[in-house]
Amino acid sequence: MLLHQVHSAYSDHPSHIAVAVSGGGDSVALLHLAYRVVAQTGQTLFAVTVDHGLRAESATEAATVAQFCQTLNIPHTTLNWNGTEAQGNLMAAARDARYQLIADWAKSNGIGHVMLGHTRDDEAETFLMQLGRGAGVDGLSAMDWRPRRLGIHWGRPLHQSMRSELRDYLTRQGIEWIDDPTNENPKYLRSRIRAAMPQLADLGLTVDAIATSAANQKMARAALDHYAAKEADTHLTIQGGDVILPRNLDRLMVPQDIQRRLWLASVMWIGGGDHAPRQRGLSQITHAIRDGRDVTLNGCAILVKRDHIRFTRELNAVRDLRCPTTEIWDGRWQLTGPHAPDLHISAVGEEGIRQCSDWRASGFPRPSIISSPAVWRSNTIIAAPLAGLGAEWTAQIVAPFSMGKNVH
Q1: Is 357 exposed, middle or buried (0-12, 13-18, 19+ CB in 10 A)?
Q2: CB-CB neighbours of 59 under 10 Å
Q3: Average pLDDT of the residues in 231-239
Q4: What is the mean pLDDT of residues 334-351?
């Protein structure tokens, strides 16, 4: 059954696959199962471990994983992160760093798919953590088993399996694993929830029941996204790189949750990032619309007018962003024109708009213009397509608007 889950997860047979291996039972079991699968399919398998540097034993554990991979003839890489310099939520910082390090490593090695050893137990624990934060439908939804993030497809082929099944598998195979003491440290919420699971099971809140609820929430989220997309077709307008929505969506009989999805999809499309704003961010938008004032959120400036709301890029988020004219700027903009090595793309900014005498004729408000892309030669602006400067240059959005990322 476990072998079938891993095999069927990659029926499209990408040529290169990696497994993120910490040394724990879940990831070691996944690695061994993947090893058996690629022996049948002929795919190339890699393993990668991130040493977060948070415990004295971490380097030794990474070396143990490397040795195990060597016995299976699987190429292994250890990536290092200096976790002692992290600020704020250490576990969240470690998770984000882990994804970024692995994504960068994978792309540099031509690997587009990375498997993670997440289980049904992880699903249940995450559900309870989100429930404690007052999460809504999206935050309580089951995790996507094959999401795309940071330019990589992340696979969770064992998301329907129990942690105990994987350890039983390793025991039958005679394979050892490493128990991370962090998982039992009551300092961390996930560890406390994990310790409480037996008592919750006595109340009927089993891993299976909780994970089933998460799956039901995921179906509800899909339905809400479906209807939000229909409302977007009716009420949402894209102008340049901006999103415009009516301010009076209540009077247009658009339900509040659908309104929020439209707002947050707009913020995510313009501001980028992999994590949608949480409920506090939603409240900021709600209060700003009610009070008729502008607000910024996740690199997006939300301009509240009498009859509409405009979502545009916040200048501070792109002020220092610079790239060659042949590259995609800010993850969304592609500029076409007479490229040259001494030219670069940066935001129009305050200095640039002073050199665009006719920018008001564009129909865009000032915040939209100053955060839009411009072609520069040193400190001289050559073209600013949205401001109407430089007819030989055009700017096109290459990242389509999507309702796929919403609130937690």
Answers
A1: exposed
A2: 13
A3: 96
A4: 97
Residues 263 and 160: their CA atoms lie apart, in Å, by: 33
Interval 396-408: pLDDT, tens: 999 989 876 444 3
* CATH architecture assignment, domain 231-315: 2-Layer Sandwich (3.30)
Token reading at 177: 């694993």
Q: Give yes or no for residue 87 having a pLDDT over 70.
A: no
Model's pTM, two decimal places?
0.84
First to last CA, the chain: 32
Which regions of the chain carry the CATH code 3.40.50.620?
Answer: 2-209
Residue 137 buriedness (CB in 10 A; 0-12 / 13-18 / 19+): buried
Q: What angle do CA 95, 97, 102 make, to 5 degrees?
A: 100
CA-closest candidate to residue 76, choices 20, 25, 137: 20
Share of the chain above pLDDT 90, in %: 79
In the CATH scheme, what is the homologous superfamily, with its name and number, of domain 2-209?
Answer: HUPs (3.40.50.620)
Statement: residue 385 has pLDDT above 90: yes
Where along the chain do the CATH 3.30.465.60 domains lie?
Answer: 231-315
The distance between the two most distant Cα atoms of the chain, rounded to a whole number of Å, is: 75
